[in-house]
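Notes to self, CRAL-TRIO domain-containing protein:
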Amino acid sequence: MAGPMKTPFSEPIPSARPLPEPVLDEDHKSKYDILLKLVKSWKEIPSESGKGGPVTEDDIFWLTRECLLRYLRATKWNVVESEKRLLKTLSWRRDFGVDNITADSMSVENETGKQILLGYDNHARPCYYLFPKNQNTTASQSQAEHVVFMIERGIDLMGPGQETLMIVVDFNIDRRKIPSIGQSKLILDIIQNHYPERLGMGFVLNAPWAVTAFFKIMSPFMDPFTRNKLNFSGDLKSFVPREQLYKEFMGELDFQYDHNVYWPYLNKLCEERRTQRRERWIQAGKMYGERETYLKGDGPSVGQ
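result:
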């Protein structure tokens, strides 16, 4: 008899399909074209830490068609604000060192399985679980880097037509393991400001009063998109196929976190996908505003 599963899923179940891409009207298309032209005119990326400099291939690769559209939607199609936010995020990515965070440097943070990417929901969103009860380090820059690293890996796991994550935070813990308010606010700010339109659904389960109070206090400062996607109760089996859902959440999946198995498997899978997407981008001419569907192997390049 087979034992518990110890590796992440590489694909959603066949019946899981991303929600249809929003249809752009003529005004939206015009604003996208304007923003794309502005982005192409950039010569340098500013930085407060001295890491600014000329626009790099990494920057251009990141500036996909869907990326620009996410920022436009997040600013209610305000081109000026979208450009500001895109520049701010690229500056933050350099200052924070997003592309320099490695699996090896984050390994100790995830030794206890406190954050896991496992399975896909009914709309083919990667499921990102956070278990504060498994906290094994103190509040630090490394903890924030860990969250960013896992979000980036969740993006790697997104298939064609998918742009969002399902995030589940299970606060089934004692008071000593509740994340600090400062750390929670930092992480919330990062997600809101630098990963706009990336939250498909969010569940905060078994939240103690301190966590509930924190979200109530923060609610006026949260963007409506993020706030409206958060749920403080819910039956996960209504949103995630049972065969890819933890037994703890009434699913059928017998999963056991084994760091020595899960961690290298996840990072090898994600690295392979990043490499494939980068190679496709290079083959198509290193285009600004490249289509993510093309990069993921489904559909033509924006230049075709």
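- The chain is about 40% helix and 10% strand.
- The two ends are 50 Å apart (CA to CA).
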